[in-house]
Amino acid sequence: MKKQKKSVNKLDKYLRLTWRKLLGIVVLGFVSIILHNLIGGLFNIEEPVFFIIVIFIIPLYLIISVFYSLFKFIKEKKS
Fold it and tell me: What gap in Å lies between CA 19 and CA 76, rounded to an integer?
């Protein structure tokens, strides 16, 4: 008998929250904060890119990942 490989869809690859991804989110947040303040302090310009990453993109990704992971966890427990 052949073992069936468990297919990993792209949503699982990008949205399933793991400890490694959580650490990456935290590190990316700190790096974005530091770069936002560093660029603003060195060049005396208002830099919106890293600010938007920290304020909007990272929290949105984290919320979506948590809900997706919980949904998949509950779905796997029922099966």
Answer: 19
Give how far Cα 38 sits from Cα of 29, 32, 42, 45, 57, Å. Answer: 14, 10, 6, 10, 20
pLDDT (tens digit per residue) in 12-63 = 889 999 999 999 999 999 999 999 999 999 999 989 999 999 999 999 999 9
Rounded CA-CA distance 62/66 in Å is 6
CA 79, CA 77: separation in Å to the nearest integer? Answer: 6
| Euclidean distance between CA atoms 24 and 14, whole angstroms | 13
